[in-house]
Amino acid sequence: MKFTKHYTVRWHDTDCNRCVRPTKILMYMQETAGEHLKSLLMSMDDMRDRLGLAFLLSSISVSIYEPLYADDEIDVQTWVCESRGLGYNRCFCIIRNGKTVAEASSVWGLLDLRTHRLLRADESPFEAKPDAAVALDLPRRLRMVRIEEMEAVGERTIVYSDIDYNGHMNNTHYPDLFCDFTPDICQSRVCAMMLSFLHEGTFGHTLKIYRKKTENGYLFRTVDGEGVTCTEALLRTEPFSK
């Protein structure tokens, strides 16, 4: 069953082209997921403090069909999809004036913080009727190249403004990080992205950023000081027309 929350797009969420930044797209979606969770049982903070559980994003694929602008009135929908094993599937949709302008499909893990064990989908304490998954024009899985085929383009230290209650860089911050290393980003817009989270980026650590040009965007990889890959991503871009 779909859960819907209404928003008015904030001016401070927009970029140099007055479009909502990709990171903020994820934030609107995940804020709505948090509200959905509250409607089912409890907030994410209560879930952590009372049950010792936390949802961790494993991967998300997003298609952004049209840019969003300040003062747009939008409805953000989220719902759970059929899940098996250790993956909890959740979808999202952003609607403006009755038209779908963005969609996403994501996979989450539910971690028992006391035992550090991932819970199976059938062990979830939450009950929500699943709905059909969205069909995105993106590969089912992110196909990366070897790091030897990528160019080292810079470094990024994880600072206070990045971290959440877990002490890790919040997953919604990564799209802006990758945009910071995307050539000609001010003349382009991100029309799709795929993000895969493999290892936590921890406060104070410095990530090395690797990049490779693709036919219509860029592949990215972040690696911590111990040589561990933290994230892999694909950003598709297109020229921005005002």
Core attributes:
single chain; 242 residues; mainly beta; Thiol Ester Dehydrase, Chain A; 2 domains; eleven-stranded antiparallel beta sheet; 3 helices
General description of the model:
By secondary structure, the chain is mainly β. Helix content is 14%, strand content 40%. The protein folds into 2 domains: 1-137, Hotdog Thioesterase (Thiol Ester Dehydrase, Chain A); 139-242, Hotdog Thioesterase (Thiol Ester Dehydrase, Chain A). Strands 1, 2, 3, 4, 5, 6, 7, 8, 9, 10 and 11 form an 11-stranded antiparallel sheet that branches. It is globular and about 45 Å long. The relative contact order is 0.17. The model has no long low-confidence stretch (mean pLDDT 93).
> Regions with pLDDT < 50 over 5+ consecutive residues?
none
CATH homologous superfamily designation of the largest domain: Hotdog Thioesterase
- DSSP summary: helix tally: 3
Mean pLDDT: 93
The total domain count is 2
- Give the N-terminus to C-terminus distance in angstroms: 37 Å
- Structural class by secondary-structure content: mainly beta
Could you tell me the strand content as a percent range? Answer: 35-45%
CATH level 1 name of the largest domain: Alpha Beta
Q: Please tell me the CATH architecture of the largest domain by its name.
A: Roll
Q: Can you write the helix and strand succession as a string?
A: EHHEEEEEEHEEEE
Compute the gyration radius: what is it? 18 Å
Major β-sheet profile: 11 strands, antiparallel
Produce the secondary structure layout.
Layout: E1 3-8, H1 22-40, H2 44-51, E2 53-64, E3 73-80, E4 88-96, E5 99-112, E6 117-119, E7 151-157, H3 174-180, E8 188-197, E9 206-214, E10 217-223, E11 229-239
Antiparallel strand pairs: 1-3, 2-5, 2-8, 3-4, 4-5, 5-6, 7-9, 8-11, 9-10, 10-11
